[in-house]
Write a structure and sequence with these properties.
The structure holds 2 protein chains of 2 kinds. Chain A is built from 3 helices and 6 strands. Chain A is α+β, with helices and mostly antiparallel strands. Chain A is globular, with a radius of gyration of 12 Å. By secondary structure, chain B is of the alpha/beta class. Chain B folds into 4 domains: about 160 residues, P-loop containing nucleotide triphosphate hydrolases (Rossmann fold); about 80 residues; about 400 residues, no CATH class; about 45 residues, no CATH class. Chain B is built from 32 helices and 9 strands. In chain B, strands 2-3-1-4-5-7 form a 6-stranded mixed sheet, with helices on both faces. A two-stranded antiparallel ribbon of chain B has the order 6-8. The chains are: A alpha+beta, B alpha/beta. At the A-B interface, helix 2, strand 4 and strand 5 of A face helix 3, helix 10, helix 16 and strand 9 of B. Strand 5 of chain A pairs antiparallel with strand 9 of chain B.
Chain lengths: ~90, ~700
């Protein structure tokens, strides 16, 4: 319903998502997978749009949250949300 | 009088500007979600009313406090909106500005230069031209540029309508325009934008039926949200490029985070900070200041009581003043330094920017018990005052999370309980009381987490919550702010002691001085309070304390926890004229009567920690989570307090009787219980190879065999 109906698993097969991106490496957002409408809106409001450069800075001890640098500021986001953001290394 | 709305992203300095313009003293902090309700105050000689609102990122709500702001904006009862933007994170802040312009609001942008050496330079004229709104540069903290801002607010000329909306021209709205044919040009544009944002509520409020909204949304491109957000950000890229000079700087990023967010060091660092705060509050600095104030109060009270004794004798008036007023209240006032210190340290934590990092670190653990990392803020504030902390649970983004967080707040040991721990604990445990106090604080947290887990598994199941939290930069608190925090807390404590405590102490004194025939009884024997308390006292026998005075103190503690100590002091017949006014020996001297053993003292302290903190917190709970959940929370608090105190009393009693051997038995018992739980869990979670719904006796398995 949101963005696209592509099969997440198929895309994940050959694409990196932000939850598994290497720390302190620059990535470019390429695509969004299925996300809850409300959540999707908030992610976009925060500036995580396609083509934008992102960098994962740190992750929590149980790897449930990651610290992400975007548009000149840092925001912590749950990895379950980051799983829906496809990225490619720059 | 016309309303001026103060709107902006979280932590952009809205309340600081509000305080600056209206000379108010509202709570501020370096954290997202300090303001959770609207605040109003007049300025400019009563011509305008400034409305401070909780922070938002756009005109679509994500959490409960954001709904408050959006509702106020949508009501449209205002002359202008001041949109405050943080200079160091300008692009993201201006996203909201575009949303406001699109909604047709008359906006004045106030770019707040929070830090002294800002990394950005902004050409306000150029930016104003591009956005089509008035812009001014301010420093809310130092009150710089606010005069210019007020001038712009007073201006009656409205911004050119939708000046900046040309960035939306590349978006194809043709598919959905047919739904808004009865509206004018500007309204059609607004509706199209709201449709692309998939703002269902907007259309329902505008009179569309569910089916019509559904039909409208099916005519939208699948990625409509993305299209509109990208159009705004692409435009903002151009605006920022054309009107600002910026250096390579990442807002909220700090080298300190390498240590404070380190997988192995994060928890020890946080624990060290907490222990340091508690140590400074209760023992080194706090105790020194408390003793000093206690001695001062002794010196001040003694001549007055001597004078009274000489002139009135030891009658009712003398007892009322010495016991109900001076005795109890002086005892409480002597704790002023400790209470203020704890509030002060919590405020420093709040201002530092460390709390966002703590939320990040705790998201993992809290997630296991069904809470969000953001609950850390509410629970930490609970160490200060439960009532104000409960309100901050509005930060949660789902209803169950909000109810759970608010319900757990009272288990945190608030400052009102400090006198109980210090006086009662100090009398029995002496130097070891530091461990008792620390233990009580941690027990409260552990009990809260256990309750959260149980609630999450039963009544308040939360679907996977979302954790999105912006990191603010680390900031040091200014000296002026230190003085402000100290003064604010001293003032509120003295007002509380002077109002609620005085009236409650007098009520308790009267109830304990007269019998049902309203005859004066000395020493409380046969008094109304004694009769009621004696009736209830047997309930507390299994907890190790059934003394009527203690039970009375607990009953009085329902109103406010500070009264527990003043009541105990009152019933004990404090000789306020002597130097023993606020001495631990007062309680110790009668300890034989009040508490039979150290176990019963522990049990009493645990009961005080866990039972309902005060009437104000119940009222706040009711306001935030409704009467039904509040009633449940109160019953739960009383039950938990009773059960845990009972366990603590009996375990401690076993230790007293049999020594360390009991510890080994308990450890073995817990180990067996854990092993048993693990085995049961493993058996239950073992999935059948043939179906998803069974275990060993599977029909499909049998059929195959």
């Amino acid at each position: 319903m949101f963005f696209n109906f592509l099969d997440a698993r198929r895309i994940l097969f050959y694409m990196t998502t932000l939850d598994s991106a290497k720390l302190n490496k620059k990535y470019k957002i390429t695509k969004f997978l299925t996300l809850d409408e409300k959540l999707c809106r908030r992610i976009l409001e925060l500036g995580l749009t396609v083509g934008q450069t992102v960098k994962a800075l740190a992750e929590s001890s149980l790897k449930k949250v990651r610290l992400v640098e975007i548009r000149g500021y840092v925001v912590s986001i749950k990895t379950s949300i980051l799983k829906s953001i496809c990225v490619e290394e720059m | 009088m016309e309303n001026i709305l103060l709107v902006g992203n979280p932590n952009s300095g809205k309340t600081t500007l509000f305080n600056s313009i209206t000379r108010a003293d509202e709570h501020v902090g370096n954290w997202h979600g300090v303001t959770v309700e609207d605040k109003r105050k007049t300025f400019d000689g009563g011509n305008f009313c400034l409305v401070d609102t909780p922070g938002i990122y756009s005109l679509s709500a994500f959490s409960f406090e954001e709904e408050v702001s959006i509702k106020i904006i949508e009501e449209g009862q205002y002359k202008k909106i001041i949109n405050i933007c943080d200079l160091n994170n300008l692009q993201r802040n201006l996203y909201l500005t575009l949303c406001l312009i699109e909604a047709g609001a008359d906006v004045v942008v106030a770019i707040n230069e929070i830090d002294k050496k800002s990394k950005y330079k902004v050409d306000t004229k150029k930016m104003s031209q591009l956005l089509g709104v008035d812009i001014c540069l301010i420093n809310a903290q130092k009150n710089i540029g606010t005069d210019d801002l007020i001038k712009k607010i007073k201006k009656n000329t409205k911004n050119t309508e939708n000046t900046a909306l040309y960035y939306l021209k590349n978006i194809d709205f043709s598919n959905i325009k047919k739904y808004f044919l009865n509206k004018n040009k500007n309204e059609i544009m607004q509706c199209c934008i709201k449709a692309f944002e998939r703002n269902r509520q907007y259309f329902l409020n505008a009179g569309f039926s569910d089916d019509e909204v559904e039909k409208l949304f099916t005519d939208l491109p699948e990625n409509s949200l993305q299209i509109i957000a990208e159009a705004r950000y692409n435009f903002l890229d151009e605006v920022i490029k054309a009107s600002t000079i910026k250096s390579e700087f990442v807002y909220g990023k700090s080298k300190l985070d390498k240590v404070l967010l380190n997988k192995y060091l994060a928890f020890p660092c946080f624990l060290a900070v907490l222990c340091l705060i508690f140590y400074l509050t209760f023992f080194s600095l706090g105790k020194f200041l408390s003793n000093g104030l206690s001695n001062l109060l002794n010196v001040m009270c003694s001549p007055l009581l001597n004078f009274l004794e000489v002139h009135t004798g030891r009658g009712f008036v003398y007892l009322l003043i010495s016991d109900a007023l001076l005795g109890g209240l002086a005892t409480l006032l002597s704790f002023l330094p400790q209470v203020v210190l704890l509030f002060f340290f919590l405020s420093l934590l709040e201002d530092s920017g460390y709390l966002s990092r703590v939320a990040f670190v705790f998201e993992d653990i809290f997630g296991l018990v069904g809470l969000s990392g953001k609950s850390v803020y509410t629970l930490l504030m609970g160490f200060g005052c439960s009532t104000s902390a409960i309100m901050t649970a509005r930060n949660m983004d789902n209803k169950n999370g909000k109810i759970k967080t608010a319900m757990l707040c009272p288990y945190m040991s608030c400052t009102a309980k400090i006198p109980i721990y210090t006086i009662v604990g100090g009398a029995f445990f002496g130097a070891k009381n530091i461990f008792v106090i620390l233990g009580l604080y941690f027990l409260g947290v552990i009990i809260a987490l256990i309750i959260s887990k149980i609630l999450d598994a039963t009544l308040l199941k939360s679907k996977e919550h979302t954790f999105i939290l912006e990191f603010p930069p680390y900031r040091a608190t200014s000296f002026k702010r230190v003085l402000k925090i100290l003064w604010k807390n001293v003032k509120s404590f003295i007002i509380k002691v002077g109002s609620v405590m005085i009236s409650m102490n007098i009520i308790v004194f009267i109830l304990s001085s007269f019998n049902f025939k309203f005859q004066f009884v000395e020493g409380g024997e046969g008094s109304i309070l004694q009769s009621i308390s004696k009736f209830i006292a047997p309930i507390f026998e299994p907890l190790g304390f059934n003394n009527w005075a203690i039970v009375s103190a607990l009953l009085a503690g329902f109103v406010a926890k500070e009264i527990v100590v003043s009541s105990i002091a009152m019933f004990n017949g404090i000789d306020a004229s002597a130097t023993r006014l606020i001495s631990e020996s007062i309680i110790l001297s009668s300890s034989v009567v009040y508490f039979s053993s150290k176990s019963s003292v522990l049990s009493f302290l645990v009961f005080c920690l866990l039972y309902t903190p005060c009437l104000a917190s119940i009222s706040m709970l009711s306001q935030e989570i409704g009467a039904k959940w509040t009633a449940f929370a109160v019953v739960l608090q009383l039950s938990v307090a009773y059960v845990v105190s009972f366990l603590i009393y009996n375990i401690s009693l076993l230790f007293e009787l049999f020594g360390g051997v009991v510890g080994i038995y308990i450890a073995v018992f817990i180990a067996i219980l854990l092993a048993f739980t693990c085995i049961i869990k493993k058996i239950l979670s073992k999935k059948c190879a043939f179906c998803d719904s069974c275990n060993k006796k599977c029909k499909k398995k049998r059929e195959k065999n």
